[in-house]
């Protein structure tokens, strides 16, 4: 008997093979391509083979298409996303952290189109809130019982707005796995853990390499929870396929670039005798025809919506040609985002990030497409009152983003491995500050002035930031909900749109408040 465990994860609503940068952009990824591979493997399964498919989270949010579904479609039609995965014959779904970004009402509406269970053993209260069906599922096929335990990164409350998590508590995935896996071993022949979370270190070396939190607990699960036959992971967007301590592990990247594939061969007594893990590239797969017929009209409406003009930009160029240089020197686009945040919150200090290297900023005529492709998260804003000491500590965290290596300035390893985290480096407006990269990490803030005067340690300052950072996300413990003095509960894409309504044209300028001493 053979069992094949297929998985998608972190597709983030990239259904069609496009990144939406232009109306005619074509890429080599997308859920439609993954669907073709999953369908082929399911329909061509051998007589002695069971094929199951798991959607492992971060599916409902993250692309311009999902923004359209969330903002422009009525709740009754928002089920389209799980109608897609239902037609892919998924056997189980897991909630990712980004599933909560639009709140529980949207999550419930989005889930309503499915014909498979949502599993969430460590989301306490999930069943009462009607977003989780069960902690686990047992699939009984061809005389073999396969248990799937569902887990979600327990760090969700660190990032997410409290009103998006009403009635929910997130337990450590490790703690939950320790409780449930022994029970499932008694109920099933094969135990699969599907975890929307990743690894807190180097999987190949089996070594912990980052601060131990409950965000990523994959290595500890492998090392401390016996009885797991297969581990499906996600969240970090890594491309992983390996066997660790005899347990096959997959993590299929993001945007449907790969389908995770774990193959188990069972002996007559139904114990696993061989296990392998691989990633199946979707690059050459044709998009699934049945899903095109289901969603083609939606894709056309999204493309038309994205090209609606919002306003104009005069002054210097606001396009981002070199993302690293934009972070190293400041950039008109980052200055603009901070201006929007300050206008919305009534502050004169703000921080924002260039989230990834695909951000291209704005052309002279700004469209919805440019806004959504540049600000990819549905963040709302908070204003936090912090001390000068806390502001300096936040800037030191930012300064650690840079590293001097072989006479060149590059990105520090901690912001690249195990997951690329450009979104955890912030650019500030409203203060004048300097990083000296010749100094050790933790002591690099060489200048910090506010209104032309040095910032004092006990001076209180109000700073606008998105709610992810305001909750301390990205290893910023100096921020937190206890520091929040006010909130703006409109997401940034709406605030940017509103800003263009009242400031047209926007005058772009190169910021001059930030400097880096590289030591060259």
Automatic annotation (TrEMBL):
Location of the Calcineurin-like phosphoesterase domain: 3-238
Annotated signal peptide: none
Residues in 5'-Nucleotidase C-terminal domain copies: 328-479
Keywords, alphabetical: Hydrolase, Nucleotide-binding, Signal
Taxonomy, superkingdom: Bacteria
Gene Ontology biological process terms from the UniProt entry: nucleotide catabolic process
Record family assignment: Belongs to the 5'-nucleotidase family.
This protein's name: Bifunctional metallophosphatase/5'-nucleotidase
């Amino acid at each position: 008997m053979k069992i094949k465990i297929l998985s998608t994860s972190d597709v983030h609503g990239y259904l069609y093979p496009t990144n939406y940068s232009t109306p005619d952009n074509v890429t080599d990824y997308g859920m439609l391509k993954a669907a073709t591979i999953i369908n082929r493997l399911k329909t061509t399964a051998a007589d002695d083979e069971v094929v199951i498919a798991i959607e492992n989270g971060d599916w409902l949010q993250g692309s311009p298409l999902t923004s359209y579904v969330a903002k422009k479609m009525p709740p009754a039609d928002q089920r389209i996303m799980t109608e897609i995965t239902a037609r892919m014959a998924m056997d189980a779904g897991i909630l990712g952290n980004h599933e909560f970004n639009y709140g529980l009402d949207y999550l419930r509406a989005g889930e309503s189109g499915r014909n498979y269970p949502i599993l969430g053993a460590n989301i306490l209260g999930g069943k009462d809130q009607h977003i989780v069906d069960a902690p686990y599922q047992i699939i009984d096929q061809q005389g073999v019982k396969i248990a799937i335990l569902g887990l979600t990164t327990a760090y969700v409350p660190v990032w997410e707005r409290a009103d998006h998590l009403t009635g929910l508590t997130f337990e450590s995935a490790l703690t939950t796995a320790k409780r449930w896996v022994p029970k499932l071993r008694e109920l099933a022949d094969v135990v699969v853990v599907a975890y929307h979370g990743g690894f807190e270190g180097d999987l190949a070396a089996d070594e912990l390499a980052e601060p131990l939190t409950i965000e990523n607990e994959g290595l500890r699960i492998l090392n401390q929870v016996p009885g797991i036959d297969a581990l499906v992971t996600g969240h970090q967007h890594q491309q992983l396929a390996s066997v660790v301590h005899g347990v096959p592990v997959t993590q299929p990247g993001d945007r449907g670039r790969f389908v995770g594939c774990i193959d188990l061969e069972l002996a007559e007594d139904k114990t696993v005798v061989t296990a392998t893990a691989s990633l199946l590239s979707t690059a050459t797969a044709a998009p699934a025809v049945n899903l095109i017929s289901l969603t083609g009209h939606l894709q056309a409406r999204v493309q038309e919506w994205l090209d609606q003009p919002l306003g104009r930009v005069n002054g210097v160029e606001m396009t981002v040609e070199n993302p690293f240089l934009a972070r190293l020197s400041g950039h008109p686009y980052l200055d603009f985002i901070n201006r929007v945040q300050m206008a919305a919150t009534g502050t004169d200090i703000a921080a924002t990030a260039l989230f990834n290297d695909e951000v291209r900023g704005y052309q002279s005529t700004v469209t919805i497409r440019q806004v959504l492709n540049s600000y990819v998260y549905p963040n709302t804003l908070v204003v936090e009152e912090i001390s000068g000491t806390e502001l300096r500590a936040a800037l030191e965290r930012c300064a650690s983003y840079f590293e001097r290596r072989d006479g060149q300035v590059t990105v520090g390893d901690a912001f690249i491995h195990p997951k690329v985290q450009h979104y955890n480096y912030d650019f500030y407006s409203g203060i004048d500050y300097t990083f000296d990269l010749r100094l050790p990490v933790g002591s690099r803030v060489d200048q910090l002035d506010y209104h032309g005067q040095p910032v004092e340690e006990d001076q209180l300052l109000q700073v606008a930031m998105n709610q992810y950072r305001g909750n301390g996300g990205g290893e910023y413990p100096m921020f937190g909900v206890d520091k929040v003095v006010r909130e703006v509960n409109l997401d940034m894409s709406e605030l940017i749109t509103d800003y263009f309504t009242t400031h047209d044209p926007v005058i772009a300028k190169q910021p001059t408040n930030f400097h880096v001493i590289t030591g060259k």
